[in-house]
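Next up, sample data:
>
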Amino acid sequence: MPKKVIQPKVDLQSTIDELQSKLARALADYANLERRFSEQSSAVVKFATSSLLTKLLDVRDHLGLASTQIKDPSLTMILNSLDKILVEEGVTTVKTDGVYDPVSMECQEMGPGTKDQVIQVIRPGYRLHDRILRTARVIVGAGSSRPLVGADPRVRPINTQN
């Protein structure tokens, strides 16, 4: 008879161990799920405005082009105000000086100049925090020694000095 009592204790202990192991895994899975949900929620909040900001960048480009043609202090003030808002929302200009970066730039054309170096910006690119909102359109050097003269004077990146 004592053997029957010992056997259920062993069975119960193995069942307890198994259930404790399952509970520990379930708690770890739940903690991971909470962490993933928190990360995704913060990313949604962080980038919720990206669609609107992308549309505002087109308006900003048009105002920038207009300000190169029309020297009006009111237009400059509006453009500076829009730039300030964009910067406050986390928008920054993609750096286009130096080596061509296919992630943040679109090569529109190859021109005379140092190989794989950006030689002219056609349209500035922008980032929202760590993501590309809009790629920069650039002309990239093809490797010949004769450089392209001058950049497009109409291209004016966001003024971050406000």
